[in-house]
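2024-03-11 09:14:02 INFO worker-7 job=invfold-0412 stage=load source=structure_tokens
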């Protein structure tokens, strides 16, 4: 799809207002949900000493950052249309880093479940809190290293005046060297094929372990279901890497609907997958759900006490 075409097409004021209202409302809802999950995690020591929940809350925080950055960029593109290249670089890189983090984090969580079910006697030795923090550092290194080179290449090939210009903030408008597009395709294939193989491996191992150990069937079944949900989440994350090609195809099928296609693509690819993390652990996991309910109940009780106290003061 011609980038210049994306730069020229604009929504009507009413359509732009409705689209921005929807994404901001979604952001507020997800921010409340994620904030509640994070507050529940840090209020109970049992969670931040458990590698499983440490990896989970890291993904929640990562998704919250990704969502905030992409929605901020979405809204700014309507308010200012063009923004400074330096700010655009920052927003795009943070969005790319956090988007890459999610599948790698999913793979780490699947491996932790595999160790817990298939090697239960060694789980406490292998999956320590310290090693989990090291894994999170490795996740960020794996996610940042390939794409930070985009910035270095741009600094080397563009003049400093370029970073003072204003552009419609799309990745191809900022990181323009053609070789960067090929590099991204290679790393996209490498990342997701690796994560896909990890999920398939861990799922099959847990499946065989469940058949062999009748006493662990229930926990193994839950682990299998969790990894299946991780697979669904991974499939949604993969959409972000094929979405440009899908947009081009849909543009030819439905000419004249480029803005609607881009908006639907944004909601499906970047917003919808962020609803899955709270569902996988916040709702399905009994331990976390119990503490989450206690947190919400205590919050409501505090509000009632405050209201009663303010009434008595009057």
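2024-03-11 09:14:09 INFO worker-7 stage=emit residues=314
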């Amino acid at each position: 799809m011609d980038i210049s075409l994306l730069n020229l097409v604009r929504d009507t004021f009413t359509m732009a207002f409705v689209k921005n209202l929807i994404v901001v409302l979604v952001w507020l809802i997800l921010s409340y949900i994620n904030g509640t999950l994070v507050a529940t995690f840090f209020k109970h020591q049992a969670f931040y000493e458990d590698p499983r929940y440490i990896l989970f809350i890291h993904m929640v925080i990562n998704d919250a950052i990704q969502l905030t950055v992409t929605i901020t960029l979405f809204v700014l593109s309507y308010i200012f249309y063009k923004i400074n290249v330096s700010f655009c670089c920052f927003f795009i890189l943070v969005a790319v880093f956090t988007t890459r983090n999610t599948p790698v984090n999913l793979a780490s969580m699947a491996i932790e479940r595999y160790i817990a079910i298939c090697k239960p006697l060694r789980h406490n030795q292998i999956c320590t809190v310290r090693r989990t923090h090291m894994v999170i550092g490795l996740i960020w290194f794996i996610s940042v290293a390939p794409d930070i080179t985009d910035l270095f290449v741009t600094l080397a090939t563009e003049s400093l005046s370029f970073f003072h210009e204003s552009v419609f903030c799309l990745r191809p408008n900022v990181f323009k060297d053609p070789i960067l597009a090929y590099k991204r395709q290679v790393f996209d294939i490498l990342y997701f094929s690796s994560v896909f193989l990890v999920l398939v491996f861990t799922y099959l191992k847990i499946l065989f372990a469940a058949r062999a150990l009748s006493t662990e069937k229930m926990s193994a079944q839950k682990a299998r279901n969790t990894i299946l949900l991780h697979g669904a989440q991974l499939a949604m994350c993969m959409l972000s890497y094929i979405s440009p090609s899908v947009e081009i195809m849909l543009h030819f099928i439905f000419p004249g609907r480029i803005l609607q296609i881009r908006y639907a693509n944004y909601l499906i690819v970047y917003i919808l997958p962020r609803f899955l993390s709270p569902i996988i652990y916040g709702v399905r996991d009994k331990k976390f759900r119990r503490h989450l309910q206690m947190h919400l109940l205590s919050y409501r009780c505090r509000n009632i006490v405050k209201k009663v106290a303010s009434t008595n003061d009057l």
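2024-03-11 09:14:09 INFO worker-7 stage=report msg="Strands lie at 83-84, 166-167."
2024-03-11 09:14:10 INFO worker-7 job finished
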